[in-house]
Design goal:
The chain is 86% helix and 0% strand. It is mainly α and 211 residues long. The two termini are 35 Å apart.
Protein backbone atom coordinates (compact mmCIF):
# COMPACT_ATOMS: atom_id res chain seq x y z
CA UNK A 1 0.00 0.00 0.00
CA UNK A 2 2.79 2.41 0.87
CA UNK A 3 4.62 1.61 -2.36
CA UNK A 4 1.52 2.18 -4.51
CA UNK A 5 0.52 5.34 -2.65
CA UNK A 6 3.95 6.90 -3.04
CA UNK A 7 4.01 6.15 -6.75
CA UNK A 8 0.84 8.25 -7.03
CA UNK A 9 2.50 11.04 -5.00
CA UNK A 10 5.55 10.96 -7.27
CA UNK A 11 3.36 11.12 -10.37
CA UNK A 12 1.27 13.96 -8.96
CA UNK A 13 4.39 16.02 -8.24
CA UNK A 14 5.94 15.50 -11.68
CA UNK A 15 3.20 15.03 -14.25
CA UNK A 16 1.09 18.19 -14.13
CA UNK A 17 3.49 20.41 -16.07
CA UNK A 18 3.36 18.20 -19.16
CA UNK A 19 -0.43 18.01 -19.03
CA UNK A 20 -0.78 21.79 -18.86
CA UNK A 21 1.70 22.43 -21.68
CA UNK A 22 0.66 19.79 -24.18
CA UNK A 23 -2.98 18.99 -23.41
CA UNK A 24 -4.25 22.41 -22.29
CA UNK A 25 -1.68 24.34 -24.33
CA UNK A 26 -0.75 26.72 -21.49
CA UNK A 27 2.10 26.15 -19.02
CA UNK A 28 0.76 28.85 -16.70
CA UNK A 29 -2.27 26.74 -15.81
CA UNK A 30 -0.01 24.64 -13.58
CA UNK A 31 -0.03 27.45 -11.02
CA UNK A 32 -3.83 27.62 -11.02
CA UNK A 33 -4.08 23.86 -10.63
CA UNK A 34 -1.63 23.97 -7.72
CA UNK A 35 -3.58 26.70 -5.97
CA UNK A 36 -6.91 24.95 -6.44
CA UNK A 37 -5.33 21.68 -5.33
CA UNK A 38 -4.61 23.15 -1.91
CA UNK A 39 -8.35 23.12 -1.14
CA UNK A 40 -8.84 19.32 -1.20
CA UNK A 41 -5.48 18.87 0.51
CA UNK A 42 -6.50 21.03 3.48
CA UNK A 43 -9.96 19.42 3.56
CA UNK A 44 -8.40 15.98 3.43
CA UNK A 45 -6.18 16.57 6.45
CA UNK A 46 -9.11 18.11 8.33
CA UNK A 47 -11.51 15.25 7.57
CA UNK A 48 -9.24 12.24 8.07
CA UNK A 49 -9.75 12.28 11.86
CA UNK A 50 -13.57 12.44 11.80
CA UNK A 51 -13.78 9.90 8.96
CA UNK A 52 -11.52 7.48 10.81
CA UNK A 53 -13.61 7.76 13.97
CA UNK A 54 -16.81 7.17 12.00
CA UNK A 55 -15.67 4.51 9.51
CA UNK A 56 -12.48 3.08 10.94
CA UNK A 57 -9.06 3.12 9.33
CA UNK A 58 -9.45 0.60 6.50
CA UNK A 59 -12.95 1.73 5.50
CA UNK A 60 -11.75 5.33 5.36
CA UNK A 61 -8.95 4.25 3.04
CA UNK A 62 -11.36 2.18 0.97
CA UNK A 63 -13.67 5.15 0.47
CA UNK A 64 -10.77 7.41 -0.48
CA UNK A 65 -9.39 4.89 -2.98
CA UNK A 66 -12.86 4.52 -4.54
CA UNK A 67 -13.08 8.31 -4.88
CA UNK A 68 -9.68 8.30 -6.61
CA UNK A 69 -10.78 5.54 -8.99
CA UNK A 70 -14.06 7.26 -9.83
CA UNK A 71 -12.38 10.63 -10.45
CA UNK A 72 -9.89 9.14 -12.91
CA UNK A 73 -12.55 7.10 -14.71
CA UNK A 74 -14.60 10.27 -15.20
CA UNK A 75 -11.55 12.09 -16.54
CA UNK A 76 -11.49 9.63 -19.43
CA UNK A 77 -14.78 11.12 -20.67
CA UNK A 78 -13.16 14.46 -21.52
CA UNK A 79 -9.44 14.60 -20.75
CA UNK A 80 -8.96 17.86 -22.65
CA UNK A 81 -11.19 20.27 -20.70
CA UNK A 82 -9.30 22.31 -18.10
CA UNK A 83 -12.14 23.10 -15.68
CA UNK A 84 -13.60 19.59 -15.84
CA UNK A 85 -10.26 17.92 -15.18
CA UNK A 86 -9.21 20.40 -12.50
CA UNK A 87 -12.38 19.68 -10.51
CA UNK A 88 -11.89 15.93 -10.84
CA UNK A 89 -8.22 16.37 -10.01
CA UNK A 90 -9.31 17.87 -6.69
CA UNK A 91 -11.07 14.61 -5.86
CA UNK A 92 -7.92 12.67 -6.77
CA UNK A 93 -5.87 14.93 -4.52
CA UNK A 94 -8.33 14.42 -1.69
CA UNK A 95 -8.17 10.64 -2.22
CA UNK A 96 -4.40 10.68 -1.61
CA UNK A 97 -4.54 12.36 1.80
CA UNK A 98 -5.97 9.57 4.03
CA UNK A 99 -3.24 7.13 2.98
CA UNK A 100 -0.64 9.80 3.65
CA UNK A 101 -1.98 10.13 7.20
CA UNK A 102 -2.77 6.49 7.99
CA UNK A 103 0.16 4.49 6.61
CA UNK A 104 1.81 4.66 10.03
CA UNK A 105 -1.37 3.28 11.61
CA UNK A 106 -1.38 0.32 9.21
CA UNK A 107 2.28 -0.30 10.03
CA UNK A 108 1.46 -0.27 13.74
CA UNK A 109 -1.25 -2.87 13.15
CA UNK A 110 1.28 -5.04 11.34
CA UNK A 111 3.70 -4.66 14.26
CA UNK A 112 1.00 -5.84 16.69
CA UNK A 113 0.33 -8.80 14.39
CA UNK A 114 4.04 -9.65 14.39
CA UNK A 115 3.97 -9.84 18.18
CA UNK A 116 0.85 -12.02 18.10
CA UNK A 117 2.09 -14.34 15.34
CA UNK A 118 5.83 -14.53 16.02
CA UNK A 119 6.18 -13.20 19.62
CA UNK A 120 8.44 -10.52 18.18
CA UNK A 121 7.24 -7.03 17.29
CA UNK A 122 10.02 -6.55 14.71
CA UNK A 123 9.56 -2.83 15.15
CA UNK A 124 12.70 -1.66 13.35
CA UNK A 125 12.24 -4.14 10.50
CA UNK A 126 8.60 -3.18 9.97
CA UNK A 127 9.32 0.55 10.02
CA UNK A 128 12.29 0.09 7.69
CA UNK A 129 10.18 -1.93 5.24
CA UNK A 130 7.50 0.76 5.26
CA UNK A 131 10.06 3.52 4.76
CA UNK A 132 11.81 1.59 1.99
CA UNK A 133 8.54 1.05 0.15
CA UNK A 134 7.74 4.75 0.42
CA UNK A 135 11.13 5.85 -0.93
CA UNK A 136 11.04 3.36 -3.80
CA UNK A 137 7.47 4.39 -4.64
CA UNK A 138 8.37 8.08 -4.84
CA UNK A 139 11.31 7.28 -7.10
CA UNK A 140 9.25 5.03 -9.36
CA UNK A 141 6.49 7.63 -9.65
CA UNK A 142 8.92 10.32 -10.72
CA UNK A 143 10.82 8.00 -13.07
CA UNK A 144 7.62 6.72 -14.68
CA UNK A 145 7.04 10.13 -16.24
CA UNK A 146 10.42 10.01 -17.98
CA UNK A 147 9.95 6.38 -19.05
CA UNK A 148 6.57 7.04 -20.65
CA UNK A 149 7.89 10.10 -22.49
CA UNK A 150 10.95 8.18 -23.68
CA UNK A 151 8.79 5.37 -25.07
CA UNK A 152 6.70 8.00 -26.89
CA UNK A 153 9.84 9.64 -28.36
CA UNK A 154 8.92 12.91 -26.70
CA UNK A 155 10.31 16.05 -28.36
CA UNK A 156 10.21 19.10 -26.05
CA UNK A 157 10.86 21.41 -29.03
CA UNK A 158 7.93 20.19 -31.12
CA UNK A 159 5.23 22.69 -32.07
CA UNK A 160 2.50 20.24 -31.07
CA UNK A 161 2.45 16.97 -29.17
CA UNK A 162 2.47 13.80 -31.23
CA UNK A 163 -0.35 11.28 -30.66
CA UNK A 164 2.16 9.03 -28.86
CA UNK A 165 3.17 11.87 -26.54
CA UNK A 166 -0.47 12.65 -25.78
CA UNK A 167 -1.07 9.02 -24.86
CA UNK A 168 2.06 8.99 -22.71
CA UNK A 169 0.81 12.07 -20.83
CA UNK A 170 -2.60 10.45 -20.35
CA UNK A 171 -0.83 7.31 -19.13
CA UNK A 172 1.05 8.90 -16.23
CA UNK A 173 -1.71 11.39 -15.43
CA UNK A 174 -4.81 9.18 -15.65
CA UNK A 175 -4.25 5.52 -16.54
CA UNK A 176 -1.53 4.67 -14.01
CA UNK A 177 -3.18 6.56 -11.11
CA UNK A 178 -6.45 4.79 -11.92
CA UNK A 179 -4.73 1.40 -11.83
CA UNK A 180 -2.96 2.26 -8.58
CA UNK A 181 -6.16 3.40 -6.86
CA UNK A 182 -7.81 0.16 -7.99
CA UNK A 183 -4.88 -1.87 -6.63
CA UNK A 184 -4.96 -0.03 -3.29
CA UNK A 185 -8.73 -0.52 -3.08
CA UNK A 186 -8.28 -4.28 -3.43
CA UNK A 187 -5.40 -4.35 -0.94
CA UNK A 188 -7.45 -2.39 1.59
CA UNK A 189 -10.13 -5.08 1.35
CA UNK A 190 -7.55 -7.83 1.89
CA UNK A 191 -6.00 -6.01 4.86
CA UNK A 192 -8.13 -7.45 7.67
CA UNK A 193 -6.01 -6.69 10.75
CA UNK A 194 -8.18 -3.84 12.01
CA UNK A 195 -11.16 -6.05 12.81
CA UNK A 196 -8.86 -8.69 14.30
CA UNK A 197 -6.98 -6.28 16.58
CA UNK A 198 -9.20 -6.67 19.67
CA UNK A 199 -8.67 -10.45 19.69
CA UNK A 200 -4.96 -10.01 18.91
CA UNK A 201 -4.49 -7.54 21.78
CA UNK A 202 -6.42 -9.82 24.13
CA UNK A 203 -4.22 -12.80 23.26
CA UNK A 204 -1.03 -10.75 23.69
CA UNK A 205 -2.23 -9.57 27.10
CA UNK A 206 -2.94 -13.16 28.16
CA UNK A 207 0.55 -14.25 27.15
CA UNK A 208 2.14 -11.41 29.08
CA UNK A 209 0.05 -12.24 32.15
CA UNK A 210 1.06 -15.89 31.91
CA UNK A 211 4.74 -14.95 31.77
Amino acid sequence: LGLAANITYGLANSAGTYYAKWIYGNDNLVGIQGAVGLIPTVLGFALVGPLTKFLGVTKTLRVSFFIGMAANVLRLINPYDFVYNTVLGCFSSFANIPMMCLLGVLTAMAIDYNEYKFSNRMLATSQSASGFGSKVGSGLGTSMVAWCLAIAAYNPDAATASPATVQAIFTFNIYVPLALFALMFVLSILFDLEKRLPAIHEEIAKRKSAR
